[in-house]
Amino acid sequence: MTAATALALNNKQILLGVSGGIAAYKSAEIVRRLQELGASVRVIMTDGACEFITPLTLQALSGHPVHRQLLDEQAEAGMGHIELARWADLLLIAPATADLIAELAQGSAANLLTAVALATPARIAVAPAMNQQMWAHPASQQNIDMLAARGVAVLGPEAGIQACGDVGLGRLLAPEAIADGCAALFASGALQGRRVVITAGPTREPLDPVRYISNHSSGKMGYALTTAALEAGASVTLISGPVNLTAPAGAQLVAVDSAAQMHDAALEHGAGCELFIAAAAVADYRPLLCAEQKIKKQGELITLELTKNPDIVAAVTALATPPAVTIGFAAETEQLEQHARAKLVAKRLTAIVANNVARSDIGFNSDDNEVTLYSADSATRFDKRGKSQLARDLIARFAELVETASAP
Q1: pLDDT tens-digit profile of 118-153?
Q2: Dihedral of the CA atoms 311, 316, 318, 319 (nearest 10)?
Q3: Each residue of 205-232: pLDDT tens digit?
Q4: Distance, CA of 254 to CA of 72 (rounded, Å)
Q5: 41, 268, 300, 350: which could join 325 in a potential S-S bond, CB 3.0 to 4.6 Å?
Q6: How far apart are CA 214 and CA 262, in angstroms?
Q7: What's the whole-model pTM score?
Q8: Is 164 a catalytic residue?
Q9: How far apart are CA 42 and CA 65, in angstroms?
């Protein structure tokens, strides 16, 4: 297993679907291999899979209850399949039997696994496992071709002796090979060789030596975008305010505290880059004066005089050599499109990502987000999903904008 494979799977959320074939016993080792490489794994089992390996085995290995029922009384609103679909960065079905592959090809949602496959915005991979004659049958080949045409990754099968005694193609790939195949799915190469600068997190504007003005930004979205850009092959500089997150391996971290520091770092690193993503939640104002000593309690009221901070994104787009593509973020509580489009024009952005932070289930400190990407002539909505998956979806779109901007 290569270091690149381990990096690609670190902190990924992989939903493993296990269907009913003899190769289901290998799913235990698949869980273990993915976890060893840093992935968080949850498991869905079909009824047939439970005939070959017990749910308790996979629960013990994954550390999470195994999911089996389409409607889950313990899940939010009883819609467990939707929650699982949003949670996953990747839906891996291993083993994928001939019957399960046929159901997927036809768009069936008759059980939890196939329903999740229809509902997830995440990438899907299948690792076929069946008798060699079943695999060679034109119906199976047609079904696999249909899935591949929809963007489903097909991992295997491999040739060898099968449980029935036949020899030929149809065996489930080894768990190590499946892990390698999963890792490769996160490396798109869409930004290969491109220089990307990303701002993330909040800024802190000091009032005195112990107090500051800030906001609720966790930095999760900016850090997820950094990971996604690295997976896409970019050289990434991450300019980060104070957060409780570890910078993704491979990124150049520039740690800052205040808006002024982030402004200076953005101008230094943003000049001439090919993609600038302003995901940070920068304080609009700072105290006019920072007290040298701790401000003491002084009665019922205290007045603070604030002055405007420099507009980082506007300053970056005004550089002599501005980024080829500049993406802004608009965290709004009302009139989302109106405010976002006003910023798009005023700051001369290529596009802007807008989300409603008045909602408690998305945005600041949440693991999920729901956004709309606005450009001068389009609006693309990304429904609610995990921030890691959303980051990959956004980076794929940003890569298209970079490609267009760099075209002769």
Answers
A1: 999 899 999 999 999 999 999 999 999 999 999 999
A2: 140
A3: 999 999 999 998 999 999 999 999 999 9
A4: 44
A5: 350
A6: 14
A7: 0.77
A8: yes
A9: 8
DSSP 8-state code for residue 202: B
Nearest partner of 281 among 339, 338, 388, 204, judged by Cα? 204
What three-state secondary structure class fits 357? coil
Length of the chain: 408
Domain ranges of the chain: 3-185, 195-406
CB 50 within 8 A of CB 123: no
Task: Report the C-alpha gap between 10 and 62 in whole angstroms.
Answer: 15
**Class for the domain spanning 3-185:** alpha beta
Beta bridge partners, 381, equal 372
Q: Which of 50, 164, 273, 290 is catalytic?
A: 164
* Closest C-alpha to 236, from 188, 277, 202: 277
Q: Could you say which of 3.40.50.300, 3.40.120.10, 3.30.70.890, 3.40.50.10300 is the CATH number of the domain covering 195-406?
A: 3.40.50.10300
Spatial separation of the C-alpha atoms in residues 220 and 39, rounded to whole Å: 17
